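Bench notes, afternoon.
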Amino acid sequence: GSEILRRFTVILDYPDQKIYLKPNRSLDDPFLIDGSGLEVKQEGLLWEKEQVQVRTAKVSQTSNEINVINDNPDSFQYKFTLKPIFIVSGTRKDSPAQKAGILKNDELVKIDNKNTKDMTLNNIQRILKTDVSRKINLEIKRNGHPIKVELLLEDPIPYIEE
């Protein structure tokens, strides 16, 4: 629905109960549809702890030099950040995801070797809407065990000329 409506300026005429659609500059954009068959949702957030090296520096008053006072590799702090967790909420029937054996509640860990915890849901959906016939490598986690899957994106509504 929104992929169609974004291509038009929509005018609602309430008194006459009419809708007017005026094409906008997005009209000729490619119509991208999820070619994986995956339905992904953010399930929550997870605290992640990262060790950060502490470097103490002193700026000279007389010049633009920076003198590092403490460059000890044993001197560190922890940085805590909240990272999203993405799970599969379902798969489309006969889709590449279903054929590859991906199941509801599988955790989506990596897409093309990039951690999904560093992505947003929009980023993930954008990747899944890329060119058909493109291969995507996924790493999922099922019951705590990592599983690697390769998907070949395909058009869910192929055009057949008769």
